Amino acid sequence: MSVQRRLLPNISALAAFEAVARLGSFTAAAQELDLTQGAVSRQIRLLEDQFGRRLFERDSRNVRLSTSGEIYAEAVRSALGQLRDAALGLMSNRHSGILNLAILPTFGTRWLMPMIPDFVENNPDITINFVTRVGRFDFTRERLDAAIHYGLPDWPEADSTLLVRETVAPVVSPEFLAGRAIASPADIGRLPLLHMATRPGAWTEWFEHQGLSAPTGPGMQFEQFGTAAQACMAGLGVALLPLLLIAGELQRGQLVPAPGHPMQSRSAYYLVVPHDKRGHPPVASFRDWLLGQVEREPAVLAW
């Protein structure tokens, strides 16, 4: 067998190896692949003989990856994922391609998604696959082409293009406001405060912006702005929320301003593109379209 051929294993053997590595069981892998357990075992032996390395450690009850197997499994998982993505691209679109995009949960739902039909209409040859990610991740490992990220423009090995800046302000439900004497920002400090897990210092920063010391008492904590907004509308407390994410609730009167000045956050929303995806046509098309939308859409709601 030539060296080149030896380095290109049979795809069926790779699929069997990936399934056993992921499921931790020859039996489960066989069921998933619709093969017999013996067939899966033969595929694994084929790989081990081909490389001269043991990929799994076996005993009477368990199977687990060897050290070499763990390293190889990560590479195989990524390679099979790329092959699946390429096949999906060929089947779903012959001419252009796929854009694998990471979005933030509430920002993606409330700000981005209402505009996406315009992109689809004007770019019928591009299919977008959306995944939700919060915080930084490895673009290569996740097989993603771009991300909408909240933070600073300092993502390593990537270009960060500013989309919108964020202005936050305290809001409450009309019923909550009517039932309490809230005349100044200082009064807010004596009320139940709703906190965002992703913005642990937001209230402290806002109170300092008002020239006040932040209260130190505990408060409910939420992972997503949408949930915090619902809690606020239910009268559970005062929430410090981005205006562009609660425009609908403010316009419908479900949330109303609490006393105090709005504050522009230090961080902002960016389109992040890894350097090796700069020339990917779907990425370029999406970036140009998105920046055009930003120019036409108001970035913040007037207070």
From TrEMBL:
Keywords (alphabetical) are:
DNA-binding, Transcription, Transcription regulation
Q: Give the domain of life.
A: Bacteria
Recorded hits in SUPFAM superfamilies, A to Z, give:
Periplasmic binding protein-like II, Winged helix' DNA-binding domain
Q: Which InterPro entries match?
A: LysR-type_TF_proteobact-type, LysR_HTH_N, LysR_subst-bd, WH-like_DNA-bd_sf, WH_DNA-bd_sf
Q: Please give the Gene Ontology molecular function terms for this protein.
A: DNA-binding transcription factor activity; sequence-specific DNA binding
Q: Which residues form the HTH lysR-type domain?
A: 9-66
- Transmembrane intervals: none
Under Gene3D superfamilies, the record lists: Periplasmic binding protein-like II, Winged helix-like DNA-binding domain superfamily/Winged helix DNA-binding domain
| Stretches assigned to coiled coil | none
What's an example Gene Ontology biological process for this entry? DNA-templated transcription
Entry's family note? Belongs to the LysR transcriptional regulatory family.
Q: Which PANTHER family match?
A: GLYCINE CLEAVAGE SYSTEM TRANSCRIPTIONAL ACTIVATOR, HTH-TYPE TRANSCRIPTIONAL REGULATOR
Q: What is this protein called?
A: Transcriptional regulator
Species name? Rhizobium loti (Mesorhizobium loti)
